[in-house]
Design a protein that fits this description.
The protein has 387 residues and is α/β, with parallel strands linked by helices. Helix content is 40%, strand content 13%. It has two domains: 47-121 and 230-372, D-Maltodextrin-Binding Protein, domain 2, CATH 3.40.190; 124-226, Periplasmic binding protein-like II (D-Maltodextrin-Binding Protein, domain 2, 3-Layer(aba) Sandwich), CATH 3.40.190.10. It has helices spanning 8-22, 27-35, 56-63, 80-88, 99-108, 151-162, 187-195, 208-215, 240-245, 247-266, 268-277, 285-293, 319-329, 346-353, 357-365, and strands at 47-49, 75-76, 94-98, 113-118, 124-128, 142-145, 166-168, 179-184, 201-205, 219-223, 234-239. Strand 1, helix 3 (56-63) and strand 2 form a beta-alpha-beta unit. InterPro entries: NrtA/CpmA_ABC-bd_dom, TAT_signal.
Length: 387
Amino acid sequence: MTGHGWSRRHVLLGATTLAAAGGLFGVADLARSATTDSTDHGGGLRVGYLPITDAAPLLIAHSAGRYPSGAGRPVLFRSWAALAEAFLTRQIDVAHLLMPMAVQLRYALGSGIRVLGWNHTNGSALTVAPHIEDLTDLAGTQVAIPFWWSIHNIVVQQLLRAHGLKPVVRRRASRSQRTVELIVMSPSDMVPALANRSIGAYTVADPFNAVAQIKGIGRIHTFLGDVWRDHACCALVTRDDVIAEQPAAVQTLADAVAGAQLRITAERSAAAAALAAGSYLPQPKPALQLALTYPTPPYPLRHPQWRPQQIGFRPFPYADFTRRLVEAMGETVVDGDRRFLDHIDPSGVHAELVDDTFIRNAMTSHGGPQAFGLDAGLTRIEEVQPL
Protein backbone atom coordinates (compact mmCIF):
# COMPACT_ATOMS: atom_id res chain seq x y z
CA MET A 1 0.00 0.00 0.00
CA THR A 2 1.05 3.59 -0.52
CA GLY A 3 1.37 6.03 2.34
CA HIS A 4 -2.25 7.13 1.80
CA GLY A 5 -3.82 3.68 1.53
CA TRP A 6 -3.63 3.36 -2.26
CA SER A 7 -2.14 0.25 -3.85
CA ARG A 8 -0.67 0.34 -7.36
CA ARG A 9 -3.46 -2.03 -8.40
CA HIS A 10 -6.05 0.42 -7.03
CA VAL A 11 -4.47 3.28 -8.98
CA LEU A 12 -4.45 1.28 -12.21
CA LEU A 13 -8.03 0.13 -11.66
CA GLY A 14 -8.93 3.79 -11.21
CA ALA A 15 -7.22 4.60 -14.50
CA THR A 16 -9.17 1.85 -16.24
CA THR A 17 -12.45 3.04 -14.76
CA LEU A 18 -11.86 6.65 -15.76
CA ALA A 19 -10.69 5.70 -19.24
CA ALA A 20 -13.91 3.74 -19.75
CA ALA A 21 -16.05 6.50 -18.30
CA GLY A 22 -14.32 9.22 -20.26
CA GLY A 23 -14.24 7.56 -23.65
CA LEU A 24 -11.18 6.91 -25.80
CA PHE A 25 -9.57 10.32 -25.56
CA GLY A 26 -6.83 11.09 -23.07
CA VAL A 27 -5.37 7.56 -22.88
CA ALA A 28 -1.79 8.82 -23.34
CA ASP A 29 -2.29 11.41 -20.60
CA LEU A 30 -3.73 8.73 -18.34
CA ALA A 31 -0.71 6.50 -18.88
CA ARG A 32 1.68 9.34 -18.08
CA SER A 33 -0.16 10.38 -14.93
CA ALA A 34 -0.38 6.79 -13.67
CA THR A 35 3.35 6.09 -14.08
CA THR A 36 5.00 9.42 -13.27
CA ASP A 37 6.77 9.58 -9.91
CA SER A 38 4.59 11.48 -7.44
CA THR A 39 6.97 11.82 -4.52
CA ASP A 40 8.93 15.01 -5.24
CA HIS A 41 7.03 18.17 -6.03
CA GLY A 42 8.71 20.71 -3.78
CA GLY A 43 6.05 20.72 -1.07
CA GLY A 44 3.73 23.37 -2.57
CA LEU A 45 0.19 22.83 -3.75
CA ARG A 46 0.01 21.55 -7.33
CA VAL A 47 -2.99 22.74 -9.35
CA GLY A 48 -4.42 21.20 -12.52
CA TYR A 49 -7.03 22.48 -14.97
CA LEU A 50 -8.71 22.02 -18.33
CA PRO A 51 -8.42 24.90 -20.85
CA ILE A 52 -11.99 26.18 -20.48
CA THR A 53 -13.47 29.31 -18.93
CA ASP A 54 -14.66 27.20 -15.99
CA ALA A 55 -11.06 27.32 -14.76
CA ALA A 56 -10.91 31.12 -14.89
CA PRO A 57 -10.89 31.73 -11.09
CA LEU A 58 -7.94 29.39 -10.56
CA LEU A 59 -6.08 30.98 -13.47
CA ILE A 60 -6.81 34.61 -12.61
CA ALA A 61 -5.77 33.90 -9.00
CA HIS A 62 -2.42 32.68 -10.29
CA SER A 63 -1.98 35.58 -12.70
CA ALA A 64 -2.55 37.96 -9.76
CA GLY A 65 0.17 36.24 -7.73
CA ARG A 66 -2.25 35.04 -5.05
CA TYR A 67 -1.27 31.37 -4.91
CA PRO A 68 0.18 29.96 -1.66
CA SER A 69 3.94 30.06 -1.25
CA GLY A 70 5.61 27.23 -3.14
CA ALA A 71 2.70 26.60 -5.49
CA GLY A 72 3.71 26.54 -9.14
CA ARG A 73 1.93 27.55 -12.31
CA PRO A 74 -1.27 25.52 -12.82
CA VAL A 75 -0.81 22.54 -15.17
CA LEU A 76 -3.00 22.19 -18.26
CA PHE A 77 -4.62 18.83 -19.08
CA ARG A 78 -6.47 18.00 -22.28
CA SER A 79 -9.22 15.71 -21.00
CA TRP A 80 -11.32 15.18 -17.90
CA ALA A 81 -10.10 11.60 -17.59
CA ALA A 82 -6.46 12.72 -17.60
CA LEU A 83 -7.10 15.48 -15.06
CA ALA A 84 -8.97 13.14 -12.73
CA GLU A 85 -6.31 10.45 -12.94
CA ALA A 86 -3.57 12.95 -12.16
CA PHE A 87 -5.63 13.99 -9.15
CA LEU A 88 -6.09 10.40 -7.98
CA THR A 89 -2.40 9.55 -8.35
CA ARG A 90 -1.38 12.69 -6.48
CA GLN A 91 0.33 14.39 -9.40
CA ILE A 92 -1.83 17.38 -8.48
CA ASP A 93 -3.45 18.41 -5.20
CA VAL A 94 -6.18 20.80 -6.35
CA ALA A 95 -8.27 20.97 -9.51
CA HIS A 96 -11.56 22.14 -10.90
CA LEU A 97 -13.59 18.99 -11.61
CA LEU A 98 -17.06 18.30 -12.88
CA MET A 99 -19.41 18.05 -9.90
CA PRO A 100 -20.89 14.68 -11.00
CA MET A 101 -17.35 13.41 -11.52
CA ALA A 102 -16.50 14.39 -7.94
CA VAL A 103 -19.41 12.22 -6.77
CA GLN A 104 -18.16 9.37 -8.95
CA LEU A 105 -14.60 9.60 -7.66
CA ARG A 106 -15.65 9.55 -4.03
CA TYR A 107 -18.19 6.75 -4.22
CA ALA A 108 -17.11 4.60 -7.18
CA LEU A 109 -13.36 4.70 -6.49
CA GLY A 110 -13.37 5.39 -2.77
CA SER A 111 -11.05 8.39 -3.08
CA GLY A 112 -10.86 10.99 -0.33
CA ILE A 113 -12.02 13.78 -2.60
CA ARG A 114 -13.41 16.93 -1.04
CA VAL A 115 -15.33 19.70 -2.75
CA LEU A 116 -14.22 23.01 -1.26
CA GLY A 117 -16.63 25.21 -3.18
CA TRP A 118 -17.92 26.04 -6.62
CA ASN A 119 -15.54 27.37 -9.22
CA HIS A 120 -18.36 28.91 -11.24
CA THR A 121 -22.02 28.59 -12.23
CA ASN A 122 -23.54 28.32 -15.73
CA GLY A 123 -20.95 28.71 -18.51
CA SER A 124 -22.13 25.85 -20.77
CA ALA A 125 -24.46 25.49 -23.72
CA LEU A 126 -25.87 23.16 -26.36
CA THR A 127 -24.41 24.21 -29.72
CA VAL A 128 -26.07 22.83 -32.84
CA ALA A 129 -25.30 22.65 -36.55
CA PRO A 130 -26.87 25.49 -38.59
CA HIS A 131 -29.60 23.27 -40.05
CA ILE A 132 -30.90 22.26 -36.59
CA GLU A 133 -33.83 24.50 -35.72
CA ASP A 134 -35.82 22.54 -33.15
CA LEU A 135 -34.48 20.00 -30.68
CA THR A 136 -36.59 17.35 -32.40
CA ASP A 137 -34.34 17.83 -35.46
CA LEU A 138 -31.64 16.02 -33.48
CA ALA A 139 -33.49 12.70 -33.86
CA GLY A 140 -31.23 10.31 -35.75
CA THR A 141 -28.04 12.27 -35.01
CA GLN A 142 -25.08 12.04 -32.68
CA VAL A 143 -24.61 14.60 -29.91
CA ALA A 144 -21.19 14.95 -28.28
CA ILE A 145 -20.69 15.39 -24.53
CA PRO A 146 -17.40 15.96 -22.68
CA PHE A 147 -17.79 13.19 -20.06
CA TRP A 148 -20.48 10.75 -18.98
CA TRP A 149 -20.62 12.08 -15.44
CA SER A 150 -21.02 15.73 -16.33
CA ILE A 151 -23.76 18.31 -15.88
CA HIS A 152 -23.73 18.54 -19.68
CA ASN A 153 -24.83 14.93 -20.08
CA ILE A 154 -27.41 15.28 -17.33
CA VAL A 155 -29.03 18.45 -18.66
CA VAL A 156 -28.97 17.51 -22.35
CA GLN A 157 -30.74 14.26 -21.51
CA GLN A 158 -33.36 16.21 -19.56
CA LEU A 159 -33.84 18.40 -22.61
CA LEU A 160 -34.07 15.50 -25.04
CA ARG A 161 -36.60 13.59 -22.94
CA ALA A 162 -38.70 16.73 -22.44
CA HIS A 163 -38.96 17.01 -26.24
CA GLY A 164 -39.94 13.40 -26.83
CA LEU A 165 -36.47 12.15 -27.77
CA LYS A 166 -34.69 9.15 -26.28
CA PRO A 167 -30.95 9.36 -25.49
CA VAL A 168 -29.05 6.14 -26.25
CA VAL A 169 -25.43 4.97 -26.03
CA ARG A 170 -23.63 2.46 -28.24
CA ARG A 171 -26.64 2.34 -30.52
CA ARG A 172 -26.98 4.00 -33.89
CA ALA A 173 -29.46 6.86 -33.64
CA SER A 174 -32.76 6.44 -35.49
CA ARG A 175 -34.88 9.31 -36.74
CA SER A 176 -38.00 7.11 -36.97
CA GLN A 177 -37.51 5.89 -33.40
CA ARG A 178 -36.69 9.42 -32.21
CA THR A 179 -33.39 8.39 -30.64
CA VAL A 180 -30.21 10.45 -30.23
CA GLU A 181 -26.84 8.77 -29.77
CA LEU A 182 -24.60 10.35 -27.14
CA ILE A 183 -20.85 10.08 -27.56
CA VAL A 184 -17.97 11.32 -25.41
CA MET A 185 -15.59 13.63 -27.22
CA SER A 186 -12.72 15.87 -26.19
CA PRO A 187 -13.94 19.51 -26.21
CA SER A 188 -11.21 20.51 -28.68
CA ASP A 189 -12.49 17.87 -31.14
CA MET A 190 -16.09 19.04 -30.97
CA VAL A 191 -15.68 22.14 -33.10
CA PRO A 192 -14.18 20.34 -36.15
CA ALA A 193 -16.68 17.48 -35.72
CA LEU A 194 -19.56 19.95 -35.95
CA ALA A 195 -17.91 21.68 -38.88
CA ASN A 196 -17.73 18.47 -40.92
CA ARG A 197 -21.23 17.45 -39.81
CA SER A 198 -20.16 14.18 -38.22
CA ILE A 199 -22.25 15.26 -35.22
CA GLY A 200 -25.47 17.25 -35.06
CA ALA A 201 -24.64 19.10 -31.86
CA TYR A 202 -22.42 19.21 -28.83
CA THR A 203 -22.84 20.36 -25.26
CA VAL A 204 -19.77 21.63 -23.46
CA ALA A 205 -18.29 24.45 -21.43
CA ASP A 206 -17.19 27.67 -23.05
CA PRO A 207 -15.31 29.01 -24.90
CA PHE A 208 -16.05 26.15 -27.32
CA ASN A 209 -19.61 27.34 -27.86
CA ALA A 210 -18.33 30.85 -28.54
CA VAL A 211 -15.69 29.47 -30.92
CA ALA A 212 -18.32 27.70 -33.06
CA GLN A 213 -20.37 30.86 -33.24
CA ILE A 214 -17.43 33.08 -34.17
CA LYS A 215 -16.33 30.63 -36.87
CA GLY A 216 -19.87 30.39 -38.21
CA ILE A 217 -20.04 26.61 -38.03
CA GLY A 218 -22.79 26.37 -35.42
CA ARG A 219 -25.05 28.35 -33.15
CA ILE A 220 -26.04 28.21 -29.52
CA HIS A 221 -29.44 26.59 -29.20
CA THR A 222 -29.77 26.47 -25.40
CA PHE A 223 -27.70 27.77 -22.53
CA LEU A 224 -27.74 25.06 -19.87
CA GLY A 225 -28.42 27.74 -17.28
CA ASP A 226 -31.77 28.22 -19.01
CA VAL A 227 -32.67 24.68 -17.93
CA TRP A 228 -31.04 24.48 -14.50
CA ARG A 229 -30.76 27.91 -12.96
CA ASP A 230 -27.25 28.84 -11.81
CA HIS A 231 -26.15 25.21 -11.76
CA ALA A 232 -22.61 24.34 -10.75
CA CYS A 233 -20.62 22.72 -13.54
CA CYS A 234 -17.14 22.59 -12.00
CA ALA A 235 -16.14 22.58 -8.36
CA LEU A 236 -12.87 23.37 -6.62
CA VAL A 237 -11.64 20.06 -5.23
CA THR A 238 -8.82 18.69 -3.14
CA ARG A 239 -8.30 15.56 -1.01
CA ASP A 240 -8.60 14.79 2.69
CA ASP A 241 -4.85 14.23 2.98
CA VAL A 242 -4.08 17.64 1.47
CA ILE A 243 -6.43 19.35 3.93
CA ALA A 244 -4.84 17.47 6.83
CA GLU A 245 -1.26 18.20 5.77
CA GLN A 246 -1.56 21.73 4.33
CA PRO A 247 -4.64 23.46 5.79
CA ALA A 248 -3.07 26.94 5.67
CA ALA A 249 -2.18 26.55 1.99
CA VAL A 250 -5.68 25.30 1.19
CA GLN A 251 -7.15 28.34 2.94
CA THR A 252 -4.81 30.69 1.05
CA LEU A 253 -5.86 29.15 -2.25
CA ALA A 254 -9.55 29.35 -1.32
CA ASP A 255 -9.04 33.04 -0.47
CA ALA A 256 -7.29 33.58 -3.81
CA VAL A 257 -10.04 31.87 -5.80
CA ALA A 258 -12.80 33.82 -4.05
CA GLY A 259 -10.94 37.06 -4.69
CA ALA A 260 -10.48 36.12 -8.34
CA GLN A 261 -14.20 35.41 -8.67
CA LEU A 262 -14.99 38.93 -7.49
CA ARG A 263 -12.35 40.36 -9.82
CA ILE A 264 -13.72 38.53 -12.86
CA THR A 265 -17.28 39.57 -12.09
CA ALA A 266 -16.24 43.21 -11.84
CA GLU A 267 -13.98 43.25 -14.91
CA ARG A 268 -14.93 40.50 -17.35
CA SER A 269 -13.17 42.00 -20.35
CA ALA A 270 -9.98 42.45 -18.37
CA ALA A 271 -10.20 38.83 -17.23
CA ALA A 272 -10.52 37.63 -20.83
CA ALA A 273 -7.45 39.67 -21.75
CA ALA A 274 -5.46 38.26 -18.82
CA LEU A 275 -6.38 34.68 -19.71
CA ALA A 276 -5.25 35.21 -23.29
CA ALA A 277 -2.14 37.24 -22.49
CA GLY A 278 -0.96 34.76 -19.88
CA SER A 279 -1.37 31.82 -22.30
CA TYR A 280 -3.53 30.07 -19.74
CA LEU A 281 -6.17 29.31 -22.37
CA PRO A 282 -5.27 28.53 -25.99
CA GLN A 283 -8.43 29.91 -27.57
CA PRO A 284 -8.32 33.33 -29.25
CA LYS A 285 -9.13 36.39 -27.18
CA PRO A 286 -12.39 37.18 -29.08
CA ALA A 287 -13.79 33.78 -28.08
CA LEU A 288 -12.80 34.28 -24.44
CA GLN A 289 -14.27 37.78 -24.51
CA LEU A 290 -17.57 36.52 -25.90
CA ALA A 291 -17.74 33.61 -23.46
CA LEU A 292 -17.35 35.91 -20.46
CA THR A 293 -19.64 38.69 -21.71
CA TYR A 294 -22.46 37.15 -23.80
CA PRO A 295 -25.03 39.85 -24.59
CA THR A 296 -28.69 38.92 -24.18
CA PRO A 297 -29.74 39.14 -27.88
CA PRO A 298 -29.88 37.32 -30.25
CA TYR A 299 -30.09 34.21 -28.09
CA PRO A 300 -33.49 32.59 -27.50
CA LEU A 301 -33.86 32.66 -23.70
CA ARG A 302 -36.83 31.05 -21.97
CA HIS A 303 -35.89 32.56 -18.60
CA PRO A 304 -34.14 35.86 -19.35
CA GLN A 305 -34.50 36.84 -15.69
CA TRP A 306 -32.15 33.96 -14.84
CA ARG A 307 -29.43 35.47 -17.06
CA PRO A 308 -28.56 31.96 -18.26
CA GLN A 309 -26.08 33.18 -20.87
CA GLN A 310 -23.77 34.61 -18.22
CA ILE A 311 -21.15 32.48 -16.53
CA GLY A 312 -21.25 33.26 -12.84
CA PHE A 313 -18.55 33.22 -10.19
CA ARG A 314 -20.16 32.48 -6.85
CA PRO A 315 -18.22 30.08 -4.64
CA PHE A 316 -20.69 28.71 -2.12
CA PRO A 317 -21.74 25.05 -2.65
CA TYR A 318 -25.43 24.63 -1.85
CA ALA A 319 -26.60 21.41 -0.24
CA ASP A 320 -29.85 21.29 -2.20
CA PHE A 321 -27.90 21.38 -5.45
CA THR A 322 -25.82 18.36 -4.41
CA ARG A 323 -28.94 16.42 -3.49
CA ARG A 324 -30.76 17.30 -6.70
CA LEU A 325 -27.63 16.52 -8.73
CA VAL A 326 -27.27 13.01 -7.30
CA GLU A 327 -30.95 12.35 -7.94
CA ALA A 328 -30.49 13.48 -11.55
CA MET A 329 -27.44 11.24 -11.94
CA GLY A 330 -29.69 8.29 -11.14
CA GLU A 331 -31.90 9.22 -14.11
CA THR A 332 -29.04 9.69 -16.58
CA VAL A 333 -27.89 7.18 -19.19
CA VAL A 334 -24.13 6.54 -19.19
CA ASP A 335 -21.77 4.08 -20.79
CA GLY A 336 -20.08 2.75 -17.66
CA ASP A 337 -20.54 1.33 -14.20
CA ARG A 338 -23.28 3.15 -12.29
CA ARG A 339 -23.75 0.69 -9.42
CA PHE A 340 -22.19 3.11 -6.92
CA LEU A 341 -25.39 5.16 -7.12
CA ASP A 342 -27.37 2.24 -5.68
CA HIS A 343 -25.63 2.59 -2.34
CA ILE A 344 -25.79 6.31 -1.63
CA ASP A 345 -28.50 8.53 -0.21
CA PRO A 346 -28.78 11.76 -2.22
CA SER A 347 -29.66 13.72 0.91
CA GLY A 348 -26.47 12.58 2.66
CA VAL A 349 -23.92 13.09 -0.09
CA HIS A 350 -23.33 16.80 0.54
CA ALA A 351 -22.16 16.31 4.13
CA GLU A 352 -19.77 13.54 3.07
CA LEU A 353 -18.42 15.16 -0.09
CA VAL A 354 -18.28 18.89 0.68
CA ASP A 355 -16.10 20.76 3.17
CA ASP A 356 -17.20 24.39 2.87
CA THR A 357 -15.14 25.62 5.84
CA PHE A 358 -12.44 27.23 3.69
CA ILE A 359 -14.86 28.92 1.30
CA ARG A 360 -16.95 30.28 4.17
CA ASN A 361 -13.76 31.78 5.64
CA ALA A 362 -12.79 33.14 2.22
CA MET A 363 -16.16 34.81 1.68
CA THR A 364 -15.96 36.38 5.12
CA SER A 365 -12.55 37.84 4.32
CA HIS A 366 -13.90 39.29 1.07
CA GLY A 367 -16.97 41.03 2.49
CA GLY A 368 -19.33 38.15 3.24
CA PRO A 369 -21.96 36.42 1.08
CA GLN A 370 -23.49 39.72 0.01
CA ALA A 371 -20.27 40.69 -1.79
CA PHE A 372 -20.87 37.69 -4.07
CA GLY A 373 -24.55 38.47 -4.58
CA LEU A 374 -25.62 35.69 -2.22
CA ASP A 375 -28.26 35.67 0.47
CA ALA A 376 -26.84 35.85 3.98
CA GLY A 377 -28.63 32.61 4.91
CA LEU A 378 -26.76 30.66 2.22
CA THR A 379 -29.70 28.43 1.31
CA ARG A 380 -31.57 27.98 -1.94
CA ILE A 381 -34.04 25.66 -3.66
CA GLU A 382 -33.07 24.39 -7.10
CA GLU A 383 -35.02 25.48 -10.18
CA VAL A 384 -34.89 22.97 -13.03
CA GLN A 385 -37.20 23.45 -16.02
CA PRO A 386 -36.31 21.43 -19.16
CA LEU A 387 -39.52 22.56 -20.90
